[in-house]
Amino acid sequence: MNDMTHDAEALSAAEPAPATISQPQDHYAFLSDIKVRLSVEVGSVSMKVSEIMDLQEGSVVELDRQVDQLIDINVNGTLVARGEVVPVKNKFGVRIAEIVSNGMARARVERRN
């Protein structure tokens, strides 16, 4: 037996057996306390700096989204769902209309200091 084999056996003997997972959602339970940034994008527009500098109170900026289109819901900058704006008391809320299935699989982790 060489040193590498001996080390591998010692490590595997010292490691506890993995816990049995009874339900699939339990597998991700450790993620539940991680904070992420959820943001909603109503629309966007590209403008020249000079156009932005000309904006005044009451100016209207036309966005690239139609009134009847769903808005984008992002988690850490990655699209995960689409929805519609709804009033919630004196604030805005978002009703989820569809989940983007591959959005969470490609979500980026953003570290904030």
Walk me through what this model shows.
With 113 residues, the chain is α+β, with helices and mostly antiparallel strands. It has a domain of 75 residues: Surface presentation of antigens (SPOA). The protein has two helices and four strands, in the order H-E-H-E-E-E. The chain has a four-stranded antiparallel beta sheet, with no helix packed on it. A hairpin with a 2-residue loop joins strand 2 and strand 3. The N and C termini lie far apart (48 Å).
How far apart, in Å, are the first and last alpha carbons? Answer: 48 Å
Structural class: alpha+beta
Mean pLDDT over the residues: 79
CATH topology of the domain at 32-106: Surface presentation of antigens (SPOA)
Instruction: Please work out how many helical segments DSSP would assign.
Output: 2
**Helix content, binned percent:** 10-25%
Secondary structure tally: strands: 4
Membrane topology: Peripheral membrane protein
Organism: Parasphingorhabdus litoris
Biased composition (Low complexity): 10-19
Family: Belongs to the FliN/MopA/SpaO family.
In a nutshell, what does this entry contain?
With 113 residues, the chain is an alpha+beta fold.
Defining key terms:
alpha+beta; 113 residues; 15% helix; Surface presentation of antigens (SPOA); disordered N terminus; four-stranded antiparallel beta sheet; 2 helices
Topology:
Elements: H1 3-14, E1 38-41, H2 49-53, E2 71-75, E3 78-88, E4 91-99
Antiparallel strand pairs: 1-2, 2-3, 3-4
Protein name: Flagellar motor switch protein FliN
Biased composition (Low complexity): 10-19
Family: Belongs to the FliN/MopA/SpaO family.
